[in-house]
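Trying the structure run again after the queue cleared.
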Amino acid sequence: MEIIGYSERGLLNSLFYEIMYSKNNLELFNEFLSLISFPYDSVYFNVNDAKILVEQSFSDFGDADSVVLLDNSQSKQCVFIEAKVKTSQRKTWSIEKEFETFIEGSNQGKVSSSNLFVQLYYKVRLIKALQNKTLFQKGVSFPECLLTKSKRVRKIGNNKVVLEARAHTPLTRYTFIPH
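Done. Tokens:
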């Protein structure tokens, strides 16, 4: 068997549909989630229900490959999933090298928005903004090395789809990489 594809989101979309239509979907979904490594926290999954948003836009905070809203042992949780595929342009890809590239770019004043750790940083800042209504309305200031089109202050905007996702994102507990 051979599968050829480029899109991380397509890969996740296929994976989630396969799990959803399986006879033992919650068991498979819990098993999938248990494979995820969460730094600085141990998370146990006993998911009763889930809503999965694939390729959800959060305006100036980027597009998440997936946002997973969980009812996990009667606790509401939100997990952002950023996936990466090794394209034909790269011979290898490693998370260690991606982090080194992020650190080097930060020190030199320019990082790529496609870097995994930049994308995770955007989501951390989004969650912090969502928790602080004043900050959310005013926008969030980003460091110079993360500026795109001279945009220092980022906002979520007025897009109805983005605001709907914000309304359904639980903020009671989250796991993130501190900055």
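The chain is about 35% helix and 20% strand. Worth checking whether this holds up in the mutant runs.
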